[in-house]
Amino acid sequence: MSAKFDAVYRRSIEDPAGFWAEAAKGIDWIQPWERVLDDRNPPFYRWFSGAKLNTCWNCLDRHVAAGRGEQIALIHDSPVTQTVKRFSYRALRDAVARFAGALVNQGVGKGDRVIIYMPMVPEALIAMLACARLGAIHSVVFGGFAPKELKSRIDDAKPKVVVTASCGIEVSRIIAYKPLLDAAIEQAEYKPETCIVLQRPMEEAKLITGRDIDWNDAVAAAQPADCVPVAATDPLYILYTSGTTGRPKGVVRDNGGHAVALHWSMENIYGIKPGETWFTASDVGWVVGHSYIVYAPLLKGCTTILYEGKPVGTPDAGAFWRVLSEHKVPAMFTAPTAFRAIRRDDPNGELLKKYDLSGFRALFLAGERSDPPTLEWAEQLLKVPVIDHWWQTETGWSIAANCLGIELLPVKHGSPTRPVPGWTLQVLDETGHPAAPGEIGNLCGKLPLPPGTFPTLWNDDARFVDSYLARFPGYYQTSDAGLIDEDGYVYVMARTDDIINVAGHRLSTGGMEEVLASHPDVAECAVIGVHDSLKGQVPVGFLVLKAGVDRPSAKIVSEVVQLVRDRIGPVAAFKTATVVARLPKTRSGKILRGTMQKIADGQEYAMPATIDDPAILGEIDDALQDIGYAKK
Ligand code: COA
Ligand code: AMP
């Protein structure tokens, strides 16, 4: 039943160098590698060391050279502006080369950082690829983050240039991006020399003389720039993701291993061939957007869809079906939350009847746990395989998946199937010993990890080792808890750290607690992720007020809600908090967040043996019931 997959998987583990060298034939190299896997400096493993390539060449120029110049590379489908714009491979290459020239005019060269803070417009993708063309390192920041988050990324990445747009559009609301960038730069210690601003007609931004340049002027003054050869091990991008504190982690992606792994994944995991159209409904600000809106489909010579809209509300819950039928898409990728939103608005799938999805072959879901009811609903509606797969910003592509392009394995609902080729996954118990099949523990990847996974954190090798490699020597700690069953199927249950997953977006409750604690009336606080039928999880805050504070609780709650929105951004979806007299703790003073979460979700829980005062759990239960949680 799985012979074909087993053979491919076994080869990847027994002979990783041979396996990935063969996959590397799918990429154009300027100089061949000296070592496929460079293991001279563990735990800092490197792939394809000694080789040179250019990722932008591999995404664009080589396809033009091979006769795909007139094929559509990019479709910008934007229901929020009611436009659909297409770029051929030739047109996209020319636009990217020209914008790369504009960056060169601003002094950007190999190794320089460029922050991209943009909505879902073609220019975001053009700016990313232009950086890749020059060997500059892009760092895309998701638009839903507040200025303070942007500021911390500016201070860490120290970009020579920031590329932004005047505004984004959230369904029908215009979100002015430029003032958010201005505020971030105002707060930052490091000041970028230049900001290039795409003016959108819905709301034009005020430019700051001497610092800001209009995108069109920058491009008009530029000559097309050529691809710059870079080392396979040079960074392609930095993508910041939530860490266990408010300080985000700068996940680094290299050029060579990334190109090989992503190119390989399009056909082997997703079953997509060159020339086919591919739709990932995510945002370029997330890793899913980097890998499967931009790099993988273009590396493979596909047509990629950049969708500026929502699954519902732009205009209705048939939005994805329209995109799939209008652009004849054989497979798509999104987060389960999008399907929960569609199901909520159109439970019987009436809107699907308006569209022809006869060429549609598979739906891929990731970013959070796929709840079986939503997955089954999608299977019954679409009548194609619905494939849950598991990955992280750090890994850049799947850790576990049902590799449709190799062989579709039987689906077990609730499991993202088996580790993909290249990954040796092990469940380890708290003492670092392998757990038995079916036993829950820490999901860990045996080092070295396959190509495409992160080689380190930006300017922070020590944090890379401390956060991911130190606890279980020889392994990468995913910080996901789960199990592997007798058939080798992986089940991902929960994070082992303070990360929660809200509408497929990864957020740190620790980061939110830092914001709540900064309120002058708050003595102590805790934030937990509680179950939400649409977003999977939403954060809920608990506040213990300082002695003597007699302002109304509701007022303080609304102030902290606003504070999180201002400091982290609307993406945190922090809307609920409650004032309590005290927090439940262990005798050593550790807040019992896990137990609080179980109470909130109405789950059974065991009284923690180390609890200091069990009566407090009753108080938490009452407080949660008052705000609509802890239903029995
Ligand atoms: N720029 C500015 N604001 C943004 C934004 C952006 N790029 N993206 C989201 N926001 C805002 C939203 O408008 C919302 O603001 P509000 O509190 O004023 O309403 C807030 O951030 C929270 O956004 P979200 O959690 O996404 O909720 P939503 O109600 O807008 O949409 C879904 C819910 C399920 C439709 C949406 O999250 C979705 O489509 N998710 C699936 C796809 C996806 O993005 N996956 C991510 C990784 S695969
Ligand atoms: P991100 O880095 O934003 O991609 O988030 C990664 C985290 O999302 C993982 O560590 C998991 O906790 C969760 N996640 C992603 N995909 C899945 C999945 N298919 N099943 C369960 N959890 C998932």
TrEMBL record:
Residue ranges occupied by any AMP-dependent synthetase/ligase domain in the UniProt entry: 63-445
Residues of the AMP-binding enzyme C-terminal domain: 512-590
PROSITE patterns named among the record's database cross-references: AMP_BINDING
The Acetyl-coenzyme A synthetase N-terminal domain, residue ranges: 6-59
InterPro entries with a match to the protein in the record: ACAS_N, AMP-bd_C, AMP-bd_C_sf, AMP-binding_CS, AMP-dep_synth/lig_dom, ANL_N_sf
SUPFAM superfamilies on file: Acetyl-CoA synthetase-like (SSF56801)
Top-level taxon of the source organism: Bacteria
Family: Belongs to the ATP-dependent AMP-binding enzyme family.
PANTHER family cross-referenced by the UniProt entry: ACYL-COA SYNTHETASE, ACYL-COA SYNTHETASE SHORT-CHAIN FAMILY MEMBER 3, MITOCHONDRIAL
Listed name of the protein: Propionyl-CoA synthetase
Source organism of this protein record: Dongia sedimenti
